[in-house]
UniProtKB/TrEMBL annotation:
<feature type="binding site">
    <location>
        <position position="88"/>
    </location>
    <ligand>
        <name>Mg(2+)</name>
    </ligand>
</feature>
<feature type="binding site">
    <location>
        <begin position="64"/>
        <end position="71"/>
    </location>
    <ligand>
        <name>GTP</name>
    </ligand>
</feature>
<dbReference type="GO" id="GO:0005525">
    <property type="term" value="F:GTP binding"/>
</dbReference>
<dbReference type="GO" id="GO:0046872">
    <property type="term" value="F:metal ion binding"/>
</dbReference>
<feature type="binding site">
    <location>
        <position position="71"/>
    </location>
    <ligand>
        <name>Mg(2+)</name>
    </ligand>
</feature>
<keyword id="KW-0460">Magnesium</keyword>
<dbReference type="InterPro" id="IPR051995">
    <property type="entry name" value="Ciliary_GTPase"/>
</dbReference>
<feature type="binding site">
    <location>
        <position position="123"/>
    </location>
    <ligand>
        <name>GTP</name>
    </ligand>
</feature>
<dbReference type="InterPro" id="IPR027417">
    <property type="entry name" value="P-loop_NTPase"/>
</dbReference>
<dbReference type="Pfam" id="PF00025">
    <property type="entry name" value="Arf"/>
</dbReference>
<dbReference type="InterPro" id="IPR006689">
    <property type="entry name" value="Small_GTPase_ARF/SAR"/>
</dbReference>
<keyword id="KW-0479">Metal-binding</keyword>
<dbReference type="GO" id="GO:0003924">
    <property type="term" value="F:GTPase activity"/>
</dbReference>
<keyword id="KW-0342">GTP-binding</keyword>
<protein>
    <submittedName>
        <fullName>ADP-ribosylation factor-like protein 13B-like protein</fullName>
    </submittedName>
</protein>
<keyword id="KW-0547">Nucleotide-binding</keyword>
Length: 178
């Protein structure tokens, strides 16, 4: 946790954004409940900054190093089997219908997006070059970190610092899933 705290402080110093804003529009409830507040994104004009923006959905990019658990997280959120996950080559698109009863209370629906679109991209060093093709297409990011793989924390730190300096990323929310 100390690593993430210091990394967020460095990111904030470089780009002068508030780390509290990084997480406040993406609420993770328990281990499988996603809730994204439409009003918050609209108030920050994130939906207008995302190319091909649909008002009834939000697009998120799942990124992280290879074997971090990006595909496993996406499959888990879709309530699909995670027994035989293979490395992602390229990308996979997943849709989550947030109006399902599993994603919150019925009276809450008017304040939420109807669906969440997740772009799961490969994390291998040879494929990371495609990440930048998605930065302008999404409203935010879920950066998945394997907390057991301590030897790769410097690589994660370098990737995050590089990522937050890219114009299509600046100002967008990044949720760290550790």
């Amino acid at each position: 946790m100390k690593f993430l705290s210091s990394l967020l402080q460095k990111c904030c110093f470089i780009r002068r954004f508030d780390p509290r804003l990084c997480l406040c529009n993406l609420h993770l409830y328990h281990h499988n409940r996603f809730k994204i507040r439409k009003s918050y994104l609209e108030s920050r004009n994130d939906s207008k900054r995302c190319k091909n923006g649909e008002t009834d959905s939000v697009k998120l990019l799942l990124i992280g190093l290879d074997n971090a658990g990006k595909t496993t997280l996406a499959l888990h959120l879709r309530k699909e089997s995670t027994n035989q996950v293979i490395p992602t080559i390229g990308f996979t698109r997943y849709e989550l219908n947030t109006l399902d009863s599993d994603y919150g209370d019925v009276e809450d629906h008017q304040d939420r997006f109807e669906k969440i679109i997740l772009y799961d991209v490969g994390g291998g060093s040879k494929i990371r070059g495609i990440w930048k093709n998605y930065y302008a297409l999404v409203h935010g990011f879920i950066f998945v970190v394997d907390s057991i793989d301590l030897e790769r924390f410097n690589e994660i730190k370098e990737l995050l610092l590089e990522m937050v300096s890219i114009p299509n990323v600046i100002g967008k929310s990044i949720l760290m899933s550790v």
